[in-house]
Structures are given as C-alpha cells and as structure tokens.
Design goal:
about 260 residues; 8 helices; globular; alpha/beta; six-stranded mixed sheet; Rossmann fold; four-stranded antiparallel sheet
C-alpha cells in the first residue's frame, strides 16, 4: 500500500518558558492510501491539536509531517490556502454550508476557485452527487433540505476535488443518533467505494467502530493502536471500549 501521510516525531508546545504546555509529545505514525483512521483520547489528550497540525491550521514546534512527498511543515504561509484547496477535504461538525448558494454551488465552490472548467465541474458534481444520493436536491438551498441531506452535501464537497486525505473533527458531535449513523455509514461508503483516505477525531466509541484503525492518545502521546482487520464492527466496538477503560475510563461523553 502507498503511504499517503507520514507524521514524524512531532511536538507542539503552547505558551512561553514560564508557563509551557506540551500538547503533542513526540508522535509518529503513517497513514496508507485508502485507510479510515480514528483518533481517540480524553479532552486535552492532543487529538484536535494533532489534526490541526496535519491540516496546516496549526504549526508544529518540532518534527515533520509529509503528505506524499511534500513536507507540509515547511509550506510558506502565503501558499497554505492553495495547498489546502488542492490536497485536503474537510467534514465539519456544523457542515459550514453557505445559505446564499445552492447545494450544487456549495459543492462547486472549491472547483471554481481551482479554475476547473464549468463542464468538468458539472460532470464531477453529478457523478459524486449520484453516489451520495443527493442529485435530486442540487438546485435547492441548504435551508430547504434536511440535516441528513446537508451532511451528504458537506461530504460531497469534501470529496469532489479528489483530495489526498479527508480530515474530520468530531463530525457527529452535534447530530442525533440517527443522523450520526447516516453520516458514519456515508463516510464508510466514501472510504470503501471511492477509496477516500479519512482521518477522524472522535470521542465516541460507536463512531470509531466504523474506522479500520484507531490511534489512542494520552497526554500528547500515542497510548495504543488497534486495527479492525476481519473483526465485526460490534467486536471492534467492544475492543475500543476495553482500550478506553485502560486509558482511564470511557470517553464517550468527553467533548
């Protein structure tokens, strides 16, 4: 399998020498193309900081992060927005859809900014929208569709530019259980049928059970790693609970 992401001995400090906090303490791991990896840990374990460093929202204090062969820790500030548009997809907790644009226009935005031709934009959106079951609502506005349809629009937008990796930070955090399950099933489908590589931060063991591998963080370090392999989702869920117990308690209610 091709390695898409390599995180190499990264550290992240906040504050100054009189009040220094180490949020990430020497973390290293690889992500292979087509993996669906979950990152779990209690509040303050470093999981969101880690995702922010990978997404270039934050910078590391030391170490390196490579997306394919590019060291993203060395990207110049003026080039970061272009790098994100061309390489990363994001699934946000609150969808981040623009109410003044139609569903189709929301999905097309990144392609338009990247100067893709109108014909190719239309073709690409229709292709992804059909796979995610939203081709019938493309002309509607976000306020005219259900929460579940908004999720599908946000997921379509995340994958339409064929990003190298999709990053999701607590994507089910503000959803009811039915909508959360629908989103997770859709992310699983994107991973399995569209070969999307996904990195998801979650506090919820049920959400994590949809992943193929879990990294557990504690005090800014990797505490444990487990893989789903041939296990059923139910068995993997119980294995996740066992590791959370070792971590110091079930973190399902930790935000």
């Amino acid at each position: 399998m091709k390695k898409i992401l390599k995180v190499e001995q990264i550290q992240k400090y906040y504050g100054n020498k009189d009040n220094l906090t180490k949020a990430i303490d020497d973390i290293s791991f690889d992500v292979e193309e087509g993996e669906f990896i979950g990152i779990m840990g209690a509040s303050g374990s470093g999981k969101t900081t880690l995702l922010n460093c990978i997404s270039t929202i934050d910078t590391v204090s030391s170490g390196h992060i490579y997306l394919e062969n590019q060291d993203i820790t060395e990207i110049k500030e003026e080039e970061i927005a272009k790098f994100r548009r061309e390489n990363l997809g994001f699934i946000f907790q609150d969808f981040n859809l623009l109410d003044t644009l139609t569903i189709e226009e929301n999905i097309a935005l990144i392609l338009t900014i990247n100067k893709v031709s109108e014909a190719k934009i239309e073709q690409r959106i229709l292709e992804i929208a059909r796979k995610l079951g939203i081709e019938g609502i493309l002309k509607k506005y976000p306020y005219q569709v259900s929460g579940g349809q908004k999720q599908r629009c946000a997921s379509c937008r995340a994958i339409v530019n064929t990003p190298k990796i999709i990053l999701a930070d607590e994507p089910t955090g503000s959803l009811d259980s039915k909508s959360a399950r629908q989103l997770l099933e859709m992310m699983e489908e994107m991973n399995q049928n569209m070969k999307a590589t996904i990195l998801m931060v979650t506090h919820d063991p049920l959400s994590a059970s949809y992943c193929s591998k879990i990294l557990f963080l504690k005090d800014g370090r990797i505490f444990n790693k487990i893989q789903k392999g041939e296990k059923t989702r139910k068995d993997f869920y119980h294995e996740i609970l066992d590791v959370l117990a070792l971590l110091g308690g079930d973190t399902r209610n930790v935000r």
